[in-house]
């Protein structure tokens, strides 16, 4: 049933139990799928705890940092046009480079972002962004 004017519910993407490289790949895949729907959206991204030690440049699945950057560049126009906000729910002890990526907002993602440790706050912010 198509209800005209109904605000979409924010999409929740839970990667909290995944290794970081898989979590990042899943987030990009989900965001790409959302942009391909050509509808306004906001998303809540439940991020995993930081890995022990350094993250390797390529994962077991073969997804490298360069691949993820290319994917983000490809979907950024769709994020700019359709995404009303990305709410990142991350542990307090995330590495500095991840915190910087989250807080770079529109420069990196092409849409507003917020970061919190409180999933309730993230849901409220994302819901407000899409008018829900």
In short:
By secondary structure, the protein is of the alpha/beta class.
Major β-sheet, in short?
4 strands, parallel
* Lateral arrangement of strands in the main beta sheet: 1-2-3-4
Q: What sort of overall outline do the alpha carbons produce when their principal axes are compared?
A: globular
The structure class reads alpha/beta
Q: What is the oligomer described by this structure?
A: single chain
Task: Give the SSE order as H and E letters.
Answer: EHEHEHHEH
Span from first to last CA?
18 Å
The Cα radius of gyration reads: 15 Å
The amount of beta strand, in percent, is 15-25%
* Poorly predicted runs of 5 or more residues: 54-61
Helix content: 40-55%
Total number of helical segments?
A: 5
User: Overall pLDDT, averaged?
Assistant: 82
Number of strands: 4
Question: Would you write up a description of this structure?
Answer:
The model is unreliable at 54-61 (pLDDT under 50). Strands 1-2-3-4 form a 4-stranded parallel sheet, sandwiched between helices. The chain is globular. It is an alpha/beta fold and 132 residues long. Strand 1 (11-14), helix 1 and strand 2 (41-46) form a beta-alpha-beta unit. The protein contains 5 helices and 4 strands, in the order E-H-E-H-E-H-H-E-H. Helix content is 44%, strand content 16%. Helix 1 (20-36) packs parallel to helix 2 (65-82).
């Amino acid at each position: 049933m198509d209800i005209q004017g109904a605000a979409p519910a924010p999409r929740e993407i839970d990667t909290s139990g995944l290794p970081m490289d898989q979590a990042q790949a899943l987030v990009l895949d989900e965001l790409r799928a959302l942009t391909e729907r050509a509808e306004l959206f906001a998303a809540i991204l439940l991020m995993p705890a930081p890995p022990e030690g350094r993250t390797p440049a390529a994962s077991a699945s073969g997804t490298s940092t360069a691949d993820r950057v290319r994917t983000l560049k490809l979907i950024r126009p769709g994020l700019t046009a359709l995404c009303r906000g990305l709410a990142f729910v991350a542990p307090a002890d995330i590495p500095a480079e991840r915190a910087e990526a989250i807080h770079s907002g529109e420069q990196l993602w092409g849409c507003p972002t917020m970061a919190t440790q409180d999933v309730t706050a993230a849901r409220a912010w994302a819901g407000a962004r899409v008018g829900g």
